Amino acid sequence: MKRTRWTGRTVGRWAAGGALACLVGIGAFLGIAHRSGLPPIPPPKPDAFPAEMLSRGAALAAIGDCVVCHTADGGVPYAGGRALATPFGTLYSTNITPDPATGIGNWSKEAFKRAMRDGVSRDGSHLYPALPYDHYRQVHDGDLDAIYAFLMTRPAASAPARENDLIFPLGFRPLLAGWKLLFLHQEEFTPRPDRDAEWNRGAYLAEGLGHCSSCHSPRNLAGAEETGASAYSGGVAEGWVAPALNGSSPATVPWTKESLFTYLRTGVDGHHGAAAGPMGPVVHGLSRAPEADVRAIATYIASLSADRAGTAPKTPALPDRSAEAAKANPVGASLFAGACAGCHEGGAPMMTQGRPGLSTVAALQLDRPDNTIRAILQGFHAPTGPAGPAMPPFAASLTDAQVADLAAYLRSRFSDRPAWTSLETAAATVRKEDSQP
Amino acid sequence: MSVTITVNGADHALDVDPSTPLLYVLRDDLELNGAKYGCGLGQCGACTVHIDGKPAFSCLTPVGAVAGRRIRTVEGLGSAGAPGLLQQAFEKEQAAQCGYCIAGMIMRAQALLDRIPDPDDAQIRAHMQTNLCRCGTHMRILRAVRRAVALRKGTQSAQEVRP
Amino acid sequence: MSPVLSNLSRRGFLAGGALVVSFALAPRAFAQLAGGGEGGAGPAVVAPDLKGSLKSTPWLDAWIRIDADGRVTVFTGKVELGQGIRTALIQVAAEELDIPPAAVTLVTADTDRTPDEGLTAGSHSMQDSGTAIQNAAANVRMLLAAEAARDWDVPADQVTTGGDGRLRAPDGRTLAYGEVAARLSLHVQAVPDAPLRKPSDYRTLGREQPRVDIPAKLTGGAAYLHDMRLPGMLHARVVRGPSVGTSLQSPDLDTVVRMPGVVTVVRQGGFLAVVADRQWTAIQAMRHLQRAAYDRAPQPPLPADGTGDAVAATLKALPARDISIMDTSEPAGPAARTVKARYTRPWISHGSIGPSCAIARYVDGTMTVWTHSQGTFDVRRVVAELLGLPPEKVHAIHAEGAGCYGQNGADDVAADAAVIAKAVPGRPIRLQWMREQEFGWEPLGPGMMTELEAALGADNRIVSWRHAVWSNPHNNRPVGAGGVLAGNEADPPFPAPEGKPIPMPEGDGSRNSNPLYSFANTHVVYHFLKDMPARVSALRSLGAHLNVFSIESMLDELAAAAGIDPLAIRLDHMRDERARDVMQAAADRFGWSKRPKGDGRRGCGMAFARYKNLGAYCAVAMEVEVDRETGRTLVRRAVAAVDCGQPANPDGVRNQIEGALVQSLSWTSREQVRFAPDRRASFDWSSYPILRFDDVPGSVEVVVMDRPGAPFLGIAEAGQGPTAAALANAIADATGVRLRDMPLSPDRLKAAIGPV
User: Fold this and answer.
1) Which of A53, C226, C362, C641 is 20 to 30 A from A352 via CA?
2) C82/B96 CB distance under 8 A
């Protein structure tokens, strides 16, 4: 089964930032680019860490979802080798099992924490910010210790790093120092005294290990996350739109902490579409994380759009204008009846069993049709395991023009927002990407 | 409303609601038994046919969407009297119990062999993942696909491949 | 391809009916445990000295007809379910008649044509029908030889056969079977002692025989009831709420009756169906009606969640009737080690890949029903009572469906179709359930629990063994209108009958709770629970799945506690030589003595059972590899050994055991029906996932023991229990973690392993 590539979400920014860094004078640059190596250590014994620390490390690693990026398809967990496709070439994640030769077995705790905070490998070379160390800088020291303990007790696997395949000059790692100079200024998380403990726990996890805003915030020209009022106003990850989580959230039914908790835990709740694309693996990790931590994250994220939830009606009108939509898009209506209605029309089993109706699905409310088109062409797997919301792909049965007709119908039936344009071109673009090896 | 579809090389003009899933047109109008109703949800693969050479769920394909496109069903691969390569391999391995899933399995496997003539065991398993079997005939289905590969290569026996 | 089915399946099917007058069939009465004790209305025993189903149908012409041109037609009351019984019975008949298998036409259950052999269930087909046909064929061959001997004036024992359908005199003269048969009446009772052919002379039995039903299944031939198309046939869909116990409040009938293509809506009491000229129209109309809100009738509480504790709490809250299954006391030494454990199994769906289907036609006061039920004759009884027709006015004919593995929706959909056909006389009605209806309305395999306590003496002998099992009845097979949904929905309703346990030795929830091993001081009790939180009935192997899982897990728990090899503790307590042989055969082929020791990731396990202690013997050994990060368990290789007496078709046996093994892995490792407070919440394959190709074993090997001429022992359900326990034992060997609540899922295993 193909697993969703999702790690590209952080890739665009550093690539752009790397290009920017080229503008910095090389001479001035080399001075700050150098970081010293840290001495290797003998690999710690598995019993070197208390059980409580390992459990905590496991939970934190699940929230950070380390395993997704650091495991190749069908590969040994944490042994790396996952290809991260970017517009600037392909990166391969590295082996973070405690194998001394090819993994991090001879990394000291200090070396590990330096990598997590400063993006520097034990040998002193810079790491690409596909590893979101700008977020990990905010993680408390004790939690990094726990993650270190957890990783150092995984089964060691010998898996040498694959050579990255990046366009010139991005293969030259010292350039990354420039990117860091410009964008790596985050501080360790400090709680807000005006918020309660659960909110602060959620904020800590979401801003740090969870790195939610790396997808859900827009980025500036240099590829760095926008902050302030723009934070959480929506971003893009692997071609999927990551919807806004702040007051501009497109959700038809406003998120609450309860509905977010259910969604983050199971990948679906009754009033919001299922987790698809890069959100799938996030839910996979959170479904196995401590319940209290997931509730805390839900509390924090729900607070981002609290002003909207406060003003919106409790039971908003759900758009569903089937007659008008069928009149405007008769071909789309016919395609919907044959291809979609068996799951999404009233009376279909999914509907009588409490799965969300299309009126509540954010993909149909976004300004861009990308998520709708991707869901139709590629489908998605249940995020938390074999059970859960899933959708079959329609790439083989529907043409780009038919996908466009269908998307136009869906938009006009289930949303009050303006019609999408250039749908057929958008479908062709997604299909082309998907046919890449 | 009239729709013309091309199934196993023959054109059929049909007076049918274009939203009708291809599955029901194949079964009820063209009287082809191969594609089966299993779930109607694109989850089990019992209805698998090829559309322009790619495997697709006929239960979720409106017939209006496939007008003028090439549709192939298990009947297009051979008959009981003159079975195609995969059908021979499934017969040789006795790869069926109730058999309800098998036509879909064969069409799914055919799509793999059309794309990769000599797949390894991992590729076969990954590719066949889409289709469900309830009798537990999986081991024989895998053997049959390997045997079809071997038949094509002209060797006599398909070896059990162990991971 | 069987000519009978192809007749039925094509437009000219009508020509295929009623070739044979049914005068030879026995009167029916309540009697023996047909189909492993399931159902309830098997035919009466009229000839107790005869073997198999000849006991109830002793006349030879009920089983075998020979035309003047030598064509042989064999009749069985059993049905093809994908288990290969059609081919095996043809082999049995061909062997004892000594003719080529291709000369045999087999007619399966048809209330007008074949003997009533009760249900095709309980792994009884070879024992009941195979034995009957074998002995009937031996009788017929004996009569043919005697008649030819008279003709030739030679002693009967000097007439021989040569496998070609001709009788031979010592001087070389020959006569064709057809020629001789024309002078004989086969309307005579079988005798018990007709000589059987010697296994050393077998030409067909015990040889690999390609299954007769497979070619059509590979090529889109007409292979299933679903493929029948009758002239003037209409398509129906039944309209119901999401699952058993729900009812739609006010479906929008007005809109539906105006939909183009809708022929009619059938509404009688709580029963509702739409009839249309096309399937797609019927489906769309059904969906529209199912938009209605639904109510739920009060029932015993469903399990609160998917945990073993919830299963146990649900079952223990129900009133129990305690049935003693086994109670022995022997002198034994004191207990040195005692192990106590609880094991559970959740509710499991049959999960047929093809939702149930039936065709019914009501013409001139006669109802004809084509059904893939396991109880063709019970379909007649059910439909007759439901529609108030005399049984002789209901003709039920078996046609193959998708694998059912017990009582799925087949009986219900047959009754549904008959109700609709009665309301639309003259037109054949084809009704197929939707996927969610199969999940929502079929009877499930019951959730169960056991509590075991066993003690080892200092000499590593088991000195006491206690086994308590809690279960709903597994036998709610319909024998009247109250057993099907349409009966419960009728006005006035036919109430569902109270469930009853199947007595030992077959048992239901108690099946295989009586260990075949020799343990001292064995106490087994069945806490029978008649009140059913969810609609349940027979699922392949009934209670044996959990009982064998429990016994064979406990043996490994004891072995681990005492540091004994799992094979040794089994052999030390087993006196049955055939049981010892299959265990040893599986162990030898597996390489048990040289197996890799559990190392945290890899491990091996084995288990054994004789199904019902009456059927086939089966031992399973397997090696697993556990991913400690995720808890995912892959079976690297599995070996099963099976002793089924004389195998009819060894490849057919292997196919069944391979299938049972893989299916049981799916049940045991990942399956459970989910419940919401007011309904079943499993409604499709995304809410009820089963094993897919990524997770099937690396290899499965089946050793079929050679037992020439030994009585047939059914194999279809022999593998489920041993496979389940072998998996748990292998996981325990690999990880040191003992999982006792099914499913043995990755999440549960990961939780038990912990972060390291």
Assistant:
1) C226
2) yes
